[in-house]
Amino acid sequence: MDLQLAGRGRPILIALSAVSAIALFAIAVSALGVRSAAAEYVTTFPPAQTQQPEPEASVDAGIAFVPDGGAQLWDGPDRDAYFTIHEGVVLPYMHRQGDWLLVTTMCNETSWVNAADVETQEQANNPAPGPGFDLSEAMIVLDPGHGDRDWGGVGPGGLSEKAVNLDIAERVRELMSVSQSVDWDTGAITPGDEVPAFGSVILTRDRNGPNEGDFELGLGYRSTVANAAGADAFVSIHNNTVPRFNTDIPGSEVYYAIGAEGSDRLAGLIYQELLLSFSSFHADWTGGELLGARARIDPDTGDDYYGILRRATMPSVIVEGVYISEPEEEALLATPEFRQAYADAVYRGIVRFLSSDDNGAGVNDPELFPLDAGTVSGNGCDLPAQPSE
After folding, report:
1. Half-sphere exposure (CA, 13 Å, Cβ side) for 243?
2. Which of 107, 174, 338, 359 could hold 378 in an S-S bridge, CB 3.0 to 4.6 Å?
């Protein structure tokens, strides 16, 4: 595996060709939980272009942002309201019926909201990534891993992965919110006009939501946010635990979706940029049996082991930066300098993925992983309620 940073624009290793992405509505229905009777509603899509163009059909999918004061969840259009959901959360919707939106909650249930009670953003429909891609139109969904009782890893000094992941994701969003200049040799990012601000960046959870962003999200919900938004890339940010070996370089891993074309290239680019960002830090690094860009396959189904990747329909990855379970790596993650270096790497990797045909580094072939791949579950999940005044 070539881990050198020289020649970063040429292909290093290309993973298996990805199969075609599954239709958005099928993904959404498969992720629905308790309130799943809405499968009776059919999504319509714009008609194919002909010599005499038909009027554009309305976009039935998108994101509903819950404003200050919260929003009512309803059993159905013009039926009964049963819950006031907390302000600052995002609700993906895959169907619209007049003024009503069929949304998926963070507990993987379906419900209805009135479009007048939320702020909406229609599903993006950008061209494929590559040279000439307009970053000012880019739609990115960032997923800070874990949250609330799903706390993720905890370091020996008590550092919480769920909090670290959120901070790094917010730093990536901040980088994307304004134009930047990038020194691609050193990785330095400075204010400038080389890379424009991204069109839209959505976090599945952030500090504007309940409990300052520390709330629980189902796997199905996370993927559905990206699907409904029409994301050009979906990046879930994590840090690892329980390494197997000592390594000479950071034991970073980036897992890619096997069913969404381009995911392996996105993973290789982010991995390459992580190595560059972390090269100025020193620790007794640790890692697993493989480093770099990886994919795990359920041997019984041939699907992705990770449910969040299995349900995503766009280039999608899970980034495992370093091992929070190891004292020296936990100490680095506790510093703003290292978190910013992590965020810089994710930002540069996404920029290169969207705007170039670079292939990155360290892409491994998919590997069979015999453990239970799991299911979408919201068991015991509590929806965040808007506090009463």
Report:
1. 26
2. 107
Assigned token pair, 67? 């404003």
Residue 202 is which amino acid?
A: I
pTM of the shown model: 0.84
Which tokens is 117 given?
């009670």
Strand partners, 120: 64
Split at pLDDT 50, 70, 90, the class of 372 is: confident
- All domains of the chain in start order, with CATH: 24-122 (2.30.30.40), 135-368 (3.40.630.40)
Residue length, the chain?
Answer: 389
Ramachandran assignment for 187, one of left (phi > 0), alpha (psi -120 to 50 degrees), beta (any other): left
- What residues have CB less than 8 Å from 345, skipping those under 6 apart? 187, 270, 273, 274, 276, 277, 278
**Please, what's the b/e burial string for 14-28 (b: 16 or more CB within 10 A of its CB; e: otherwise)?**
ebeebeebbebbebb
pLDDT above 90 coverage of the chain, percent = 81
**Residue whose entry in the numeric block shows the structure tokens 């392996």:** 264
Q: Show Cβ contacts of residue 385 under 8 Å, excluding neighbours closer than 6 positions.
A: 70, 83, 84, 85, 86
Integer CA distances (angstroms), 367 to 154, 179, 290, in order? 27, 38, 10
